[in-house]
Design brief:
By secondary structure, this protein is an alpha+beta fold. It contains seven helices and nine strands; from the N terminus they run H-E-E-H-E-H-H-E-E-E-H-E-H-E-E-H.
Length: 219
């Protein structure tokens, strides 16, 4: 079995369950093989720029601010501030008059549901565990996935301590061997970025997401 086969088998499982997912979303601190979401609103505006979203968060907290306040907060040039603000204005997140920026839409109360990231590996369970731990800054839960015949070689104590779950994969059968623990370091801004990407790249799943699956207890 190859790692791509593990990924494809999990993809098939998620498709059958009607779960929104995407593969290899680049998140700066890591690239999960699979990222999935259950329960987020389908109307999230896609955002792929952490800095842009951070500026929007600042404007929302201030309600009304200026180009110079943004410049001083993020230590960037005035021209760069204007570029970012123009993008936010075109997305209808802010309104600009002269050098004053007002928030007109708050995305930071958006329903993001539950986001889960999975790292697939054939044998290197230690490396997979370390990678999965990085995903906890933008995911509610993180798992590693390995072939069922190799699961017996894993030292589960490390996973229990770090809160990373373990999935066994054999054909299209996916089984949870160890439950993941909810992240206490998941940042809303990063979670919004990956969740909006998942929703953007996912096929419309309708109401099939209500079907029972191994991730149901995490909701």
């Amino acid at each position: 079995m190859l790692e791509i086969e593990i990924v494809n088998n999990i993809n098939t499982y998620l498709e059958c369950k009607g779960i929104h997912f995407s593969n290899e979303l680049r998140m700066g601190v890591g690239i999960p093989d699979i990222s999935l979401n259950i329960g987020a609103t389908r109307y999230l505006k896609p955002m792929d720029d952490y800095f842009l979203l951070s500026i929007l968060e600042f404007v929302n907290k201030k309600h009304c601010t200026s180009f110079h306040e943004i410049k001083n907060e993020f230590l960037i040039t005035l021209d760069k501030v204007k570029q970012y603000v123009v993008i936010l204005a075109k997305m209808s997140f802010v309104k600009v008059k002269n050098d004053i920026v007002r928030a007109i839409k708050n995305i930071f109360s958006a329903k993001l549901g539950t986001t889960i990231s999975i790292e697939a590996k054939l044998k290197d369970w230690r490396g997979a565990c370390l990678q999965a731990q990085r995903y906890l800054c933008f995911s509610d839960y993180a798992y590693i996935a390995m072939p069922s015949n190799y699961i017996k070689n894993i030292e589960q104590k490390l996973f229990v301590e770090s809160g990373i779950g373990i999935l066994s994969v054999e054909g299209n059968k996916v089984e949870e061997i160890l439950s993941a623990r909810k992240s206490d370091s998941c940042e809303f801004t990063l979670k919004y970025l990956i969740t909006s990407k998942i929703i953007e790249k996912s096929v419309e799943m309708g109401k099939k997401h209500l079907r029972k699956n191994i991730f149901t207890p995490l909701l």
